[in-house]
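#structure-requests
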Amino acid sequence: MIQIRRILKVADNRPVRSIRCIGLKHKSTRTVARVGDQLLGAVRVTRPNRGWRRGQKVRAVLVRRVRSTSSASGMYVKFQENSVLLLNEKGSPIATRLKGPIPNVLREKGFGKLFALGARPV
């Protein structure tokens, strides 16, 4: 379960390696993020001299989580790590390439651009 203060890996080609979740963007009072939910994070680990600094606030969307998720077809999808994808202020991805598989649930939640970046749908 993705709650506040959870460390998450970044699944794109940005120099940011991991972020810490500092807020969830929900219309309800849920305290747990699911695949496809947007969150606010703070940069934890980054490669040096790349324009990003530790503690910088970023927007992200959760693309993979360790806990199994059921799909509309009845399959359960489970990943080995909790991963996010960084977003800009308009909500579109910053990255030009993605690492690893992406669940089809994201297409239903309005993130169809992720599949054009070369992600493998699951």
